[in-house]
Design a protein that fits this description.
The chain has 309 residues and is of the alpha+beta class. It has 2 domains: 189 residues, FAD/NAD(P)-binding domain, CATH 3.50.50.60; 97 residues, Polyamine Oxidase, Chain A, domain 2. The chain contains 10 helices and 18 strands. The chain has a 6-stranded mixed sheet, covered by helices on one side. The chain has a 5-stranded antiparallel sheet with strand order 13-14-15-12-16. It binds flavin-adenine dinucleotide. Flavin-adenine dinucleotide binds next to helix 1, helix 4, strand 16 and helix 10.
Protein backbone atom coordinates (compact mmCIF):
# COMPACT_ATOMS: atom_id res chain seq x y z
CA UNK A 1 0.00 0.00 0.00
CA UNK A 2 1.24 3.49 -0.89
CA UNK A 3 0.39 6.11 1.71
CA UNK A 4 1.06 9.84 1.56
CA UNK A 5 1.05 11.77 4.82
CA UNK A 6 0.67 15.55 4.58
CA UNK A 7 2.44 17.23 7.50
CA UNK A 8 5.63 16.37 9.41
CA UNK A 9 4.33 17.58 12.77
CA UNK A 10 3.82 15.21 15.69
CA UNK A 11 0.61 13.85 14.28
CA UNK A 12 1.94 13.15 10.77
CA UNK A 13 5.19 11.64 12.05
CA UNK A 14 3.30 9.36 14.45
CA UNK A 15 1.14 8.08 11.58
CA UNK A 16 4.10 7.65 9.26
CA UNK A 17 6.16 5.75 11.83
CA UNK A 18 3.40 3.24 12.51
CA UNK A 19 2.46 2.63 8.88
CA UNK A 20 6.10 2.39 7.80
CA UNK A 21 6.78 -0.11 10.61
CA UNK A 22 3.83 -2.17 9.35
CA UNK A 23 5.69 -2.58 6.04
CA UNK A 24 3.95 -0.07 3.78
CA UNK A 25 5.39 2.62 1.52
CA UNK A 26 4.93 5.99 3.17
CA UNK A 27 5.98 9.43 1.97
CA UNK A 28 5.63 12.42 4.29
CA UNK A 29 5.33 15.84 2.67
CA UNK A 30 5.75 19.13 4.51
CA UNK A 31 5.79 22.67 3.21
CA UNK A 32 8.29 23.66 5.90
CA UNK A 33 12.06 23.30 5.77
CA UNK A 34 12.20 20.95 8.75
CA UNK A 35 10.05 18.71 10.91
CA UNK A 36 7.91 19.71 13.86
CA UNK A 37 5.19 22.07 12.61
CA UNK A 38 3.92 23.85 15.72
CA UNK A 39 6.71 22.16 17.69
CA UNK A 40 9.38 24.59 16.58
CA UNK A 41 12.89 25.50 17.66
CA UNK A 42 14.77 28.48 16.25
CA UNK A 43 18.39 29.56 16.56
CA UNK A 44 19.26 33.24 16.81
CA UNK A 45 23.04 33.46 16.90
CA UNK A 46 24.11 31.22 19.81
CA UNK A 47 20.64 31.25 21.36
CA UNK A 48 18.21 28.34 20.99
CA UNK A 49 14.53 29.15 21.45
CA UNK A 50 11.45 26.95 21.39
CA UNK A 51 8.88 29.21 19.81
CA UNK A 52 5.82 26.97 19.37
CA UNK A 53 4.90 24.36 21.99
CA UNK A 54 6.95 24.80 25.16
CA UNK A 55 6.36 21.58 27.08
CA UNK A 56 4.00 18.65 27.31
CA UNK A 57 2.20 16.70 29.94
CA UNK A 58 1.11 13.05 29.92
CA UNK A 59 -2.50 12.14 30.64
CA UNK A 60 -3.02 8.80 28.89
CA UNK A 61 -1.29 5.41 29.08
CA UNK A 62 -0.91 5.35 25.28
CA UNK A 63 1.03 8.59 25.25
CA UNK A 64 3.02 7.53 28.34
CA UNK A 65 4.39 4.60 26.32
CA UNK A 66 5.54 6.97 23.58
CA UNK A 67 7.09 9.38 26.07
CA UNK A 68 8.94 6.51 27.76
CA UNK A 69 10.49 5.69 24.39
CA UNK A 70 11.52 9.35 23.89
CA UNK A 71 13.04 9.44 27.39
CA UNK A 72 14.97 6.20 26.78
CA UNK A 73 16.22 7.57 23.44
CA UNK A 74 17.41 10.71 25.23
CA UNK A 75 15.37 13.06 23.01
CA UNK A 76 13.00 14.21 25.78
CA UNK A 77 13.52 14.95 29.46
CA UNK A 78 11.53 16.12 32.43
CA UNK A 79 11.78 19.91 32.67
CA UNK A 80 9.99 20.48 35.98
CA UNK A 81 6.92 19.61 38.03
CA UNK A 82 5.05 22.85 37.49
CA UNK A 83 5.74 26.55 37.45
CA UNK A 84 5.48 28.82 40.46
CA UNK A 85 4.34 26.69 43.38
CA UNK A 86 4.31 23.57 41.21
CA UNK A 87 1.61 20.91 41.19
CA UNK A 88 3.74 17.79 41.12
CA UNK A 89 2.84 16.79 37.54
CA UNK A 90 5.84 16.37 35.24
CA UNK A 91 6.33 18.85 32.39
CA UNK A 92 8.50 17.37 29.65
CA UNK A 93 10.42 19.03 26.84
CA UNK A 94 12.77 18.11 24.02
CA UNK A 95 16.32 17.59 25.25
CA UNK A 96 17.85 20.37 23.12
CA UNK A 97 14.60 22.03 22.12
CA UNK A 98 11.27 20.57 21.12
CA UNK A 99 12.42 19.58 17.64
CA UNK A 100 14.93 17.12 19.13
CA UNK A 101 11.87 14.88 19.42
CA UNK A 102 10.56 15.34 15.89
CA UNK A 103 14.03 14.92 14.37
CA UNK A 104 14.24 11.60 16.20
CA UNK A 105 10.81 10.62 14.90
CA UNK A 106 11.86 11.21 11.27
CA UNK A 107 14.70 8.66 11.45
CA UNK A 108 14.16 6.00 8.79
CA UNK A 109 11.11 7.78 7.35
CA UNK A 110 10.82 9.19 3.83
CA UNK A 111 10.17 12.84 4.65
CA UNK A 112 10.30 15.48 1.92
CA UNK A 113 10.53 19.13 2.98
CA UNK A 114 9.64 22.32 1.12
CA UNK A 115 6.87 20.32 -0.54
CA UNK A 116 3.65 22.32 -0.56
CA UNK A 117 0.60 20.19 -1.30
CA UNK A 118 -2.07 22.28 -2.97
CA UNK A 119 -4.72 19.78 -4.01
CA UNK A 120 -5.86 16.20 -3.50
CA UNK A 121 -7.84 14.61 -6.31
CA UNK A 122 -9.66 11.29 -6.72
CA UNK A 123 -8.62 8.93 -9.51
CA UNK A 124 -9.73 5.44 -10.59
CA UNK A 125 -7.44 3.61 -8.17
CA UNK A 126 -7.03 6.00 -5.28
CA UNK A 127 -5.79 9.56 -4.99
CA UNK A 128 -3.44 12.03 -6.63
CA UNK A 129 -1.60 14.35 -4.29
CA UNK A 130 -0.70 17.46 -6.30
CA UNK A 131 2.25 19.62 -5.27
CA UNK A 132 2.75 23.26 -6.08
CA UNK A 133 5.82 22.44 -8.19
CA UNK A 134 3.52 20.79 -10.74
CA UNK A 135 4.34 17.19 -9.77
CA UNK A 136 1.99 14.68 -8.19
CA UNK A 137 2.16 11.46 -6.19
CA UNK A 138 -0.22 8.51 -6.38
CA UNK A 139 -1.57 7.13 -3.11
CA UNK A 140 -3.95 4.42 -1.99
CA UNK A 141 -4.60 6.43 1.16
CA UNK A 142 -3.78 9.99 2.16
CA UNK A 143 -3.49 11.15 5.77
CA UNK A 144 -3.87 14.92 6.09
CA UNK A 145 -2.58 16.35 9.38
CA UNK A 146 -2.53 20.11 8.72
CA UNK A 147 -4.56 22.49 10.86
CA UNK A 148 -8.15 21.96 9.70
CA UNK A 149 -8.60 25.08 7.50
CA UNK A 150 -5.49 24.08 5.56
CA UNK A 151 -6.71 20.48 5.25
CA UNK A 152 -10.08 21.67 3.98
CA UNK A 153 -8.40 23.78 1.31
CA UNK A 154 -6.62 20.68 -0.02
CA UNK A 155 -9.91 18.76 -0.32
CA UNK A 156 -11.91 21.50 -2.01
CA UNK A 157 -12.09 19.62 -5.34
CA UNK A 158 -13.25 16.33 -3.83
CA UNK A 159 -16.84 15.39 -3.07
CA UNK A 160 -15.97 14.25 0.46
CA UNK A 161 -18.73 15.16 2.90
CA UNK A 162 -16.59 16.36 5.81
CA UNK A 163 -18.90 17.09 8.77
CA UNK A 164 -19.51 20.74 9.66
CA UNK A 165 -18.21 20.03 13.16
CA UNK A 166 -14.77 19.54 11.58
CA UNK A 167 -15.09 21.96 8.67
CA UNK A 168 -16.00 24.86 11.00
CA UNK A 169 -13.22 24.43 13.56
CA UNK A 170 -11.63 27.81 14.20
CA UNK A 171 -8.24 28.55 15.68
CA UNK A 172 -6.86 31.02 18.19
CA UNK A 173 -3.85 33.00 17.04
CA UNK A 174 -0.61 33.58 18.89
CA UNK A 175 1.58 36.63 18.55
CA UNK A 176 5.02 35.91 19.96
CA UNK A 177 8.35 37.60 20.54
CA UNK A 178 11.77 35.97 20.66
CA UNK A 179 14.26 37.99 22.68
CA UNK A 180 17.96 37.29 23.19
CA UNK A 181 19.25 39.09 26.27
CA UNK A 182 22.39 39.58 28.27
CA UNK A 183 21.96 39.36 32.04
CA UNK A 184 19.43 37.92 34.43
CA UNK A 185 15.72 38.32 33.62
CA UNK A 186 12.69 38.37 35.90
CA UNK A 187 11.65 34.83 34.89
CA UNK A 188 12.28 32.62 37.92
CA UNK A 189 13.53 29.04 38.12
CA UNK A 190 12.53 26.63 36.55
CA UNK A 191 12.27 29.05 33.64
CA UNK A 192 8.62 29.81 32.86
CA UNK A 193 5.71 31.90 34.07
CA UNK A 194 2.20 31.07 32.84
CA UNK A 195 -0.45 33.82 32.67
CA UNK A 196 1.78 36.06 34.76
CA UNK A 197 0.14 39.25 33.51
CA UNK A 198 -2.68 40.45 31.23
CA UNK A 199 -0.68 40.02 27.99
CA UNK A 200 1.38 36.84 28.04
CA UNK A 201 0.08 33.29 28.29
CA UNK A 202 3.63 32.08 28.90
CA UNK A 203 7.09 33.59 29.18
CA UNK A 204 9.98 31.13 28.99
CA UNK A 205 13.66 31.58 29.73
CA UNK A 206 15.19 29.06 27.32
CA UNK A 207 18.48 29.01 29.24
CA UNK A 208 16.85 28.17 32.57
CA UNK A 209 14.78 25.59 30.67
CA UNK A 210 18.06 24.04 29.58
CA UNK A 211 17.80 24.32 25.80
CA UNK A 212 19.84 27.47 25.16
CA UNK A 213 23.49 28.09 26.09
CA UNK A 214 22.71 31.80 26.44
CA UNK A 215 19.80 33.72 27.94
CA UNK A 216 16.84 34.04 25.54
CA UNK A 217 13.14 34.58 26.20
CA UNK A 218 10.13 33.27 24.30
CA UNK A 219 7.01 35.33 25.02
CA UNK A 220 3.57 34.15 23.82
CA UNK A 221 0.75 36.70 23.90
CA UNK A 222 -2.55 35.28 25.05
CA UNK A 223 -5.45 34.63 22.65
CA UNK A 224 -7.30 37.84 23.49
CA UNK A 225 -4.29 40.09 22.93
CA UNK A 226 -3.30 38.20 19.76
CA UNK A 227 -6.80 38.49 18.29
CA UNK A 228 -7.03 42.19 19.12
CA UNK A 229 -3.67 43.06 17.54
CA UNK A 230 -3.50 40.52 14.68
CA UNK A 231 -4.49 42.90 11.90
CA UNK A 232 -2.38 45.78 13.12
CA UNK A 233 0.92 46.71 11.56
CA UNK A 234 3.48 43.99 12.37
CA UNK A 235 6.27 46.38 13.40
CA UNK A 236 3.99 48.51 15.58
CA UNK A 237 2.57 45.41 17.28
CA UNK A 238 6.04 43.98 17.88
CA UNK A 239 7.16 47.27 19.41
CA UNK A 240 4.14 47.14 21.75
CA UNK A 241 4.88 43.53 22.68
CA UNK A 242 8.51 44.40 23.39
CA UNK A 243 7.41 47.26 25.63
CA UNK A 244 5.07 44.94 27.53
CA UNK A 245 7.86 42.35 27.74
CA UNK A 246 10.06 44.78 29.62
CA UNK A 247 8.67 43.71 32.98
CA UNK A 248 10.00 40.17 32.28
CA UNK A 249 13.25 41.30 30.67
CA UNK A 250 13.99 43.36 33.78
CA UNK A 251 17.52 44.70 34.01
CA UNK A 252 18.88 42.40 31.30
CA UNK A 253 20.06 44.03 28.06
CA UNK A 254 18.25 43.12 24.84
CA UNK A 255 20.77 41.81 22.29
CA UNK A 256 18.35 40.86 19.51
CA UNK A 257 14.61 40.41 19.12
CA UNK A 258 12.27 38.98 16.50
CA UNK A 259 8.49 38.79 16.07
CA UNK A 260 6.81 35.45 15.40
CA UNK A 261 3.16 34.80 14.56
CA UNK A 262 1.09 31.62 14.61
CA UNK A 263 -2.09 32.17 12.58
CA UNK A 264 -3.49 28.70 13.29
CA UNK A 265 -2.13 28.17 16.79
CA UNK A 266 -4.80 26.40 18.82
CA UNK A 267 -8.09 24.82 17.74
CA UNK A 268 -10.95 26.39 19.73
CA UNK A 269 -13.03 23.22 19.51
CA UNK A 270 -12.10 19.62 18.80
CA UNK A 271 -13.85 16.83 16.91
CA UNK A 272 -15.24 14.09 19.18
CA UNK A 273 -13.23 11.31 17.51
CA UNK A 274 -9.44 11.04 17.22
CA UNK A 275 -9.53 11.12 13.41
CA UNK A 276 -12.04 11.21 10.57
CA UNK A 277 -11.85 8.91 7.56
CA UNK A 278 -13.71 8.32 4.34
CA UNK A 279 -12.80 6.62 1.06
CA UNK A 280 -9.04 6.54 1.67
CA UNK A 281 -8.70 10.06 3.09
CA UNK A 282 -7.93 10.36 6.81
CA UNK A 283 -8.01 13.69 8.64
CA UNK A 284 -5.93 13.89 11.82
CA UNK A 285 -4.09 16.34 14.06
CA UNK A 286 -4.57 18.08 17.37
CA UNK A 287 -8.06 19.28 16.38
CA UNK A 288 -9.16 15.64 16.76
CA UNK A 289 -7.76 14.48 20.08
CA UNK A 290 -6.96 17.60 22.06
CA UNK A 291 -5.18 20.90 21.36
CA UNK A 292 -1.81 19.85 22.65
CA UNK A 293 1.14 17.62 21.87
CA UNK A 294 -0.48 14.60 23.45
CA UNK A 295 -3.60 15.16 21.34
CA UNK A 296 -1.54 15.33 18.14
CA UNK A 297 0.21 12.04 18.95
CA UNK A 298 -3.01 10.26 19.96
CA UNK A 299 -4.68 11.43 16.75
CA UNK A 300 -1.71 10.15 14.75
CA UNK A 301 -2.02 6.76 16.45
CA UNK A 302 -5.73 6.62 15.61
CA UNK A 303 -5.12 7.63 12.01
CA UNK A 304 -2.52 4.88 11.62
CA UNK A 305 -4.93 2.31 13.03
CA UNK A 306 -7.56 3.54 10.58
CA UNK A 307 -5.20 3.20 7.59
CA UNK A 308 -4.00 -0.26 8.67
CA UNK A 309 -7.58 -1.39 9.20
C1 LIG B 1 2.38 29.09 20.12
C2 LIG B 1 1.99 27.67 20.49
C3 LIG B 1 2.25 27.19 21.76
C4 LIG B 1 1.89 25.89 22.11
N1 LIG B 1 2.21 25.43 23.35
C5 LIG B 1 1.97 24.14 23.65
C6 LIG B 1 2.43 23.59 24.86
O1 LIG B 1 3.13 24.25 25.65
N2 LIG B 1 2.12 22.28 25.13
C7 LIG B 1 1.42 21.51 24.25
O2 LIG B 1 1.17 20.33 24.55
N3 LIG B 1 1.00 22.00 23.07
C8 LIG B 1 1.26 23.29 22.74
N4 LIG B 1 0.89 23.78 21.54
C9 LIG B 1 0.12 22.92 20.64
C10 LIG B 1 1.01 21.91 19.90
O3 LIG B 1 2.09 22.58 19.34
C11 LIG B 1 0.17 21.25 18.82
O4 LIG B 1 -0.97 20.65 19.43
C12 LIG B 1 0.89 20.16 18.04
O5 LIG B 1 2.23 20.52 17.76
C13 LIG B 1 0.11 19.93 16.75
O6 LIG B 1 0.73 18.93 15.97
P1 LIG B 1 0.05 18.49 14.59
O7 LIG B 1 0.92 17.45 14.01
O8 LIG B 1 -1.39 18.17 14.82
O9 LIG B 1 0.02 19.81 13.68
P2 LIG B 1 1.24 20.71 13.16
O10 LIG B 1 2.35 20.69 14.11
O11 LIG B 1 0.63 22.03 12.81
O12 LIG B 1 1.72 19.97 11.83
C14 LIG B 1 1.09 20.16 10.58
C15 LIG B 1 2.14 20.23 9.51
O13 LIG B 1 1.49 20.33 8.24
C16 LIG B 1 2.28 21.13 7.40
N5 LIG B 1 1.43 21.64 6.33
C17 LIG B 1 0.35 22.45 6.42
N6 LIG B 1 -0.19 22.67 5.20
C18 LIG B 1 0.59 21.99 4.32
C19 LIG B 1 0.55 21.83 2.90
N7 LIG B 1 -0.39 22.41 2.13
N8 LIG B 1 1.50 21.06 2.30
C20 LIG B 1 2.46 20.46 3.06
N9 LIG B 1 2.54 20.58 4.40
C21 LIG B 1 1.61 21.33 5.02
C22 LIG B 1 2.81 22.22 8.32
O14 LIG B 1 4.00 22.79 7.78
C23 LIG B 1 3.05 21.45 9.61
O15 LIG B 1 4.40 21.03 9.73
C24 LIG B 1 1.24 25.07 21.16
C25 LIG B 1 1.01 25.54 19.87
C26 LIG B 1 1.38 26.83 19.52
C27 LIG B 1 1.18 27.33 18.12
Amino acid sequence: MQVVVVGAGLSGLTVARRITDAGHDVIVLDKGRSSGGRCATRRIGDAVLDHGAQFFTVRSDEFATTVDEWLRAGVAREWCRGFGAGDGHPRYCGTNGMTTITKHMTEGLAVRYSQMVFNIEKNNRGWWVHLDDGTHLAADQVVVTCPVPQSMALLVNTDLQVPDGIRNIEYDRTIAALVVVNGVTNVPVPGAVQNGDATFSIVVDNQLKGVSPIRALTLHCNAAFSEEHWSNDLAVTHERVMSLAQSWIGDATVVEHQPKRWRLATPRTTWHERCWAHDGIVLAGDAFAGPRIEGAVLSGMAAAAQVLG
